[in-house]
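Spend some time on the protein that follows and explain the fold to me:
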Amino acid sequence: MKKLIAGCCALMVLAVGVANAQATAPPDGTEVQATPPAPAAAAPSAATPGKAAAKAASDKDTKLEEVLVTAQKRSQNVQNIPITIQALTAKDINQLGIKSSTDIAQAIPNIDIALPSGAGSQPIITIRGIGVNDFDTNNAGPNGVYVDEVYLSAPGSQTFQVFDLDRIEVLKGPQGTLYGRNTSGGAINFITAKPTDTFTADIHAGYSSYDTFSLEGAVGGPLAPGLDGRFALVKNNSDGYMTNALTGNHENGANDFATRGLLLYKPTSDLTLLFNVHGGQVNTRPTEYRHVGVFQPSAPGTQNDPVQYNNVPPGYPAYAGTPVQCSQAQISAGGCVDLFGYGTPQGFYNGSFDRQQNLVVNSIGSNLRVDYKPGSVSFTSITAFEHFDKFHPENTDAGPNRLLDIDFGVNSNSFTQEFRAAQDLGKLHWVLGIYNLDEWLSQDQPAGELLDFDTFYGAGAGNGVAAMLLDNSKQITTSGAIFGQADYALTEKLKLTLGGRFTDESKKFKTADSEAVQNNGINNFGPYTPLWSFDKSSYNSAASWRAALDYSFTKRILAYASAASGFKSADFNGGFLSTNPVEANVQSNPVSPEKVLAYEIGVKSELFDRRLLFNAAVFYNDYRDMQVFTQINPVAGGTGLPLLILTNAPKAHTDGIDLQMVAKPIRYLTATVNLGLLEAKIDQLTSIINTSGTTQSYAGNTLPLAPRTSLSGILDYRIPFETGTLDLQANANYRTKQYFDTTDDPLITQRSYWLENARVGYSFDQGIWEVAAFVHNLSNQKYLSDAFDESNPFGFIEEVVGTPRSVGVQLNYSF
């Protein structure tokens, strides 16, 4: 709280000081007073058009461009909105190499996106430390993902190919008074390029390391009077950067495509219909993880060499009794093994992976947007349907043996409907809407544990130990809301914003588990025996609100303060529950809704004749019953799958600072710095720490995926020549240490690291063509995007590795 108070004071002093400095400086025609109109009788000279064009070109080279966003359901300059918003334009997306919805964290501070199951699976999104570290596919997190204002309810559908976008908008803090689906942490909006009444075409082709090829294209224009269309597609292929010692093949590659078609129809001047149909598919080998052993090898010839994993010496198994865990230093050095004696591969991007099935993801959807404005009141209707299904054959143990393998299957269908009305009366602007979501989601998740037990511990040793589990669940969600927000100008400089929302949500969750245990030697299992089944439901309703004041010191300096409440409804644990019916019954109960009070004070400014943009915000989020996810391992030497616990932390908080600076210090040079400072702590939580029921307080622990410092910077220098323009760009981003679970487990912690990228492009023919070369991860940093501790009973750490250095070329065409 001291950090918040100090930050608020500093921002207010900064805002007032800057305002005074600008007010006493000579007016530049934009900051203090409006430029007077030219006399009506004055005819322009023959040189006027040329001078105007030259001035526009000069302004583009020396001044920052305005960025328009629709974060508040109307087109506005991002600098005039009293919330923290950061936008990436189509140019930014291309030059930063953003190919997936999960890539945006590299450019925006205080946001982190992990892929617990690798590319093609659901992300874990945290904004200002707010997220839920749950890899189950039934639990939508507290941060909303929208494409053209359509909420993607299935977590798995929130990872998708980025192509033909106009911009990306990231909103930080609770969003509900203007959005159909309530989110307590923030929202990410992806806005696609729309049809136009003139012909346009774009082609982006690229080739890079690991035989990676990408092709993106779009074409659009008029089809008939009042009817415009646009069609876009993207195709990605890659061999991958992981090496499989068993097959000699590469892993962690890509084979995916996506398409989108849009029709824009304007039958009258006050009616517009936009129809969108889209789909995509992923069909490739799933992401393979890095395997790290954690047990002491107790026999010669253990499987540290991934190529020679079958060379088991006589007298094996490795363990005659209870395995002994290595020290953290030994684990980091790579000298330890898992329960079956397989060690840590020597190369960071190497392994021995026995499963050879493909990850298959299919998605298809459509939506219809209708905008009608017969008078001063405008009406909007958005009707959408989304289908998503996935089969993910995960090599969970990341090794050559059948130690732990899980198939994640999910099928989701959702229907959403939103109606809005809005009116702009000058001093007053209001929006009122209603929203409904219906989702039907099912999960089919078979798992095999210790299936090769006999191979290493003797014939028949796996009887009663090796097992096949079958976990099935169905979830039906129905959510409705009424929401609204109004802005009122109290004076020429002071504006008040008030918003409210009422949410009503119900969920039905039906789950069942069955087990088949080895009973007559390896690969011999009896019939599946039902263990338990539950049919439960939850019902929640809540009111939330937002209030803000903003004051315009000048046309380009805005200070604001806001307070808002947020709400996330109850959720169910959709993962593998205990095989004990009593324990599973407790686990299957819904967790309580989480609530937040969020406070923010900030300043937005454009200074020195729009050569410098400086934005700053201080925030504090006070959480009650925050939903947290924890993996609980069996006691040392125990057997069975770890327990996956979804519970509530009675108290938690996050506070910090967001800073953004964009400058044009000299002509043609643009420098951008984004800085995020964050403290995200659990204030109260007591939970079991192993399956024996031992409890421990997690108070004071740092929330997952919440680095204390996140920083990104971009330098872009454009050098004009007679035949074209040379564009030199370098960017880098930095993250301090972060944890991957609520226990702050040191075995699954990522140290601080830098990622650097560079790009050189040359555009010619008035910018229609561009050729470019780039390098990503210039220093070849080895880092993790997520990790899971499976030390008990399996003896390994599962690490999701980040991509290594890649070098490539691009060809871009825009007409």
